[in-house]
Amino acid sequence: MGAGQLAGRVALITGSASGQGRSAAQLFADQGAAIVVVDVDDDGAHETVACIDKAGGRAFALHADVSTRHDCDAMVAAAVDTYGRLDVLYNNAAIQMSGRLIETTEEMWDVTIATNLSAIFWACRAAIPHMLAGDGGSIVNTSSTLGQQGSEGYAAYGAAKAGLIALTRQIAVEYGPKVRANVIAPGSIDTPRFRKVTERMDDAESFLGMLQRTIPMRRLGLADDVARLALFLASDASAYTSGAVIPCDGGLAAFR
Amino acid sequence: MSPNGRVSLVTGGASGLGEAIVNRLASDGDHVIVADVDEPGARLVVDNLIAAGLWADMVTVDVTSEGEVAAMIDGLMERHGRLDALVCSAAIETRSSVVDCADDDWQRVLDVNLKGPFLCCKHGIPAIVRTGGGSVVLLGSVLGAIGSPGYAAYCASKGALVNLAKQAAIEHAPDQVRVNVVSPSATDTGLFARVAARSDDPERMMQMVAGNTPMQRLGTAAEVAATVAFLCSDGAAFISGTVIPLDGGMAARRIV
Predict the structure, then answer these.
(1) What's residue A256's pLDDT?
(2) Who is most buried in B49, B122, B166, B252, counting CB within 10 A?
(3) How far is CA B219 from CA A52, A60, A122, B247, in A?
């Protein structure tokens, strides 16, 4: 068995074709875990696997739309079929649609809740029995600063991100002895998806400047900042922490 | 210079959780300064580290005295020229409810548990700024977030500590100083162990408290030290103003 904080473990990471998910997949693999790289973006997922292969790690890519129960069941089954166990479930995949409450269409609501909240319920429901049957496990769910604080235009997103916090506490309490479950609450993180949003803006530079001034640490987060917190929560370094919400936001949540 | 060149200061480092934190940071390669009112205890901890080939020295300090805290920081900056991490773990507790709590007990708990960390931050943070940035970790408690009958002054001191940390985090984030709280519940070595030891049936009391947590066990000092080590590392580079609980899921459950 190799070295590393996750040596001998199997980790499934949703949304790992880019950004925070890819950083985590690479870091977890580097720490000895075998990785199931799950995404709807097949090209990106294969690129993540190629990066891990090149560094000498173990991983395979799997296409799954986590907004469907079927795909969540299938991805967990594939992880266990391939690697024989599942120790870490990192629910990172999410979509972000903005709109104030009365502008939020039924479709926007349904897709946001399915992808950002129900997906986590389905993935956890599929994974927990394997963790209970094995050596236990660690679940890391991704909320947001907007899961605990409001912001104009995030009616569905904020509700989903808050809902998963309650769901995580529930898992921590119900499966405490063997399964830990915690939440990461990232603030503004500089990822390819974040850049895509800002590129569409007329005044991206002034928006980024304004954003940075609101963050006490005066910078955006990096995908790796979030990945390193995810590693802490996935590994035994946090063995007695469960049901917690840990911000990774440069001090933002302490400020507002 | 120590293996990694870092200098860390741990108050209350002569025993309990503080001692475990000292041992962890020293084994990670820091030069650790053990600060405590208990001079023989601090000397023993330092002697053991040096005998093990690690790097440490000690200072006797009453953290409730601004003169002593200022002199401690001045002295270590003269000797080492830097301070990378400040860990405030010195704390006391008294058992009394709000109406029974004597003035002297109230004042003593607030002085050691709240004013002490305030003074250490007031004088320690400028030293960390001069070093170019670093990490402050305050030892909180699960009783800083939830109440417990008979711990009036202790709960108040630990609750206030959380917002002191957020304030310090916001004010010094631009200086690259991160400030976070680690909040353990009962551990097998902290203040709780001493309370249990004074009870009629220590074993039964510890089992009862362990049985009340979702993880069905007490935390360990090594687990607390691992979280402190994470917060002092670059892995937590974007994490500030947060509270990391180590409570086996206790705070996530309503009935404890």
Answers:
(1) 65
(2) B252
(3) 35, 36, 30, 7
Radius of gyration of chain A (CA): 17
Summarize pLDDT for B14-68 with one digit per residue, the tens.
999 999 999 999 999 999 999 999 999 999 999 999 999 999 999 999 999 999 9
Would residue A68 count as lying in a domain?
yes
CATH number at residue A29: 3.40.50.720
Please confirm, yes or no, whether A157 is among the known catalytic residues.
Answer: yes
CB distance from A251 to chain B under 8 Å?
yes
d(CA B228, CA B138): 9
pTM recorded for the entire structure: 0.92
Numbers of helices and strands, H then E, in chain B: 9, 7
Q: What residues make up the domain containing A109?
A: 10-188+223-249
ipTM: 0.87
| pLDDT tens digits for range B129-138 | 999 999 999 9
How many domains, chain A?
A: 1
Q: Which of residues 216-255 of B touch A (CB under 8 A)?
A: 216-217, 219-220, 223-224, 226-227, 229-230, 234-242, 244-253
The percent of residues above 90 in pLDDT, for chain A, comes to 83
Q: How many CB pairs under 8 A join A and B?
A: 133
CB contact under 8 Å between B214 and A176, yes or no, is yes
Q: Output the CA angle B136-B137-B140, nearest 5 degrees.
A: 145
Pick left, alpha or beta for residue A56 (phi over 0 → left; psi -120 to 50 → alpha; otherwise beta). Answer: left
